[in-house]
Every structure is written in C-alpha cells, then in structure tokens.
Amino acid sequence: MNIELWSLLLLGFGLGMLHALDADHVMAVTGLSCQKPDKKTSVLFCARWALGHGAALILIGTLVMFLGMAIPEELSAYAENLVGVVLIMIGLYVLWDIVRQRAHLHFHRHDSLPQHAHWHSHRHGMSEHQKDSHRHKHAPVFVGVLHGTAGSAPLLALLPLSQLSSPWLGMSYLLLFGFGVFLAMLIFGGVIGQVFGWMKRWGNQAITSLRVGVSLLSIAYGMKLLVTAF
After folding, report:
1. Which spans in the chain are helix H?
2. What distance in Å separates the CA atoms of residue 83 and residue 124, rounded to the nearest whole number?
3. How many CB atoms lie within 10 A of CB 79?
4. What pLDDT score does 170 carry?
5. What is the pLDDT of residues 163-192, one digit of tens each?
6. Pick from 45, 68, 120, 167: CA 20 to 30 A from residue 59's CA?
7. Residue 177's closest CA among 153, 143, 147?
8. Alpha-carbon distance 74 to 118, whole Å?
9. What is the DSSP string of 3-36?
10. First CA to last CA distance, the chain
C-alpha cells in the first residue's frame, strides 16, 4: 500500500473526528445525556450514538461499493429533516421531564420553631423515571443512524471512495472514518459528563438550569434545520 492510500485512510480518521463534533451531533447527544447527568451515562450515550452513526455509514458504503447501488439524493434530505424533528422532540422531552420531576415547596416545623418551607423533590425515588431511562437507552443508536444518513456524513465518507481501487480499501476508509467519530464522541462524552459533575456540586438548581438551556438550544437548532430545508 503506497503513501497516498495511507494518507487517504488517515484523512478518513481525521475527518471522522471532526465530523463527530458537528453542531447537530453535539446538540443531540448532550440533550440525550442530560436526562441522567453523570459521566458514565454521558459516555455510554455518546458511544451508542457513534455505533448507530457508523452502522449507517457501513450500510451505505456496502450498498454502493459491493452491490453497485445508487443512493437516492432525497434520502439524505429526508434524514436531515427527520434529524430536525428529533432534535425538537429531544428538547421537548427534556422540558417535560423537568416539569414532571419539578421540585416543590414542602412545609414543616421542627419542635417549637415556626413553620417553614424548603424545596423538595422526589426525583431519585421515581421508579417511573428509571423505567423511562431503560426504555430510551436505544434512542442514541436511532439518532446516530439518522445522523449517519443525513447531512455531510455520506459526502465526507463516500466521495474519496471513487479514488480507491478496491472496495475493501473503501471499507477500510469507512471503518477508520467511523472509528474517528467513535473516539471523538467518547472524548466528548467524558467532557460533558465532567461538566455535569461540576454542576452537581452547585445543587439541583444548577443542573436544572443546564438541562433547560440544553433543551431550548436543541429545539432552536432543530427548528433551524427544518426552516433551512424549506
């Protein structure tokens, strides 16, 4: 294998790392991760997203290189529109989850002291919340598949394939591109998980404020994608 092919394969890895940090990707994984803000969950959500993203690219590449199929141009556009819808849904879900678990004033008294109030939340004791987390653990994979189909991913991953003399070299390019995406997402998941850990030290109000901000940004970016499409 000559130096030009090695350079092309390494380019695929680098492009994958850069592509992972596209704004819509960051919005999606952050919105999903903040449903349970801790480092382990953030890394797992990002890893699942990257696996879905890579699976879509491998499927597209296999259809093109080994079966000679032409991928309809409309497919990427439809997937891009659906990404916008999903980002809006993620933002709305996070807002609904915040309202569902909202803190409330709890009045009580200690011995002979006057009655007073403090904020109280049942968040950590909600079995329904745990059920929701279990039901939605595959959501990052689904969103990753959409992102792998939409936008610039097929363009970045498939344009150089015409320069490769073997479909197996093309598949190697796709695998390295996907690995770059996966590695960058693991790093990003660790970073946002660390941010969540810092925010927890400031109390539930800080975490709630962060979740509200992420949800609003997700909704706004999803609407931007839809408006741009039309």
Report:
1. 3-20, 23-33, 39-65, 73-100, 127-135, 139-149, 153-158, 167-201, 204-229
2. 31
3. 20
4. 80
5. 666 778 888 888 999 999 999 999 999 999
6. 45
7. 153
8. 55
9. HHHHHHHHHHHHHHHHHHT-HHHHHHHHHHHTTS
10. 45
CA angle (26 as vertex; 199, 162 as ends), nearest 5: 155
**Which residue in 154, 157, 194, 142 sits closest to 29, CA to CA?**
142
**pTM (2 decimals)?**
0.78
DSSP secondary-structure letter at 113? S
Give the model confidence (pLDDT) of 85-112 as tens digits.
Answer: 999 999 998 888 888 776 444 445 555 5
At 229 the three-state DSSP class reads helix
Q: How many other C-beta atoms lie within 10 A of the C-beta of residue 197?
A: 13
d(CA 63, CA 227): 31
CB 88 within 8 A of CB 222: yes
The structure tokens 């919340």 sit at 129
Of 100, 150, 162, residue with least CA distance to 128 = 100
Amino acid at 79: A
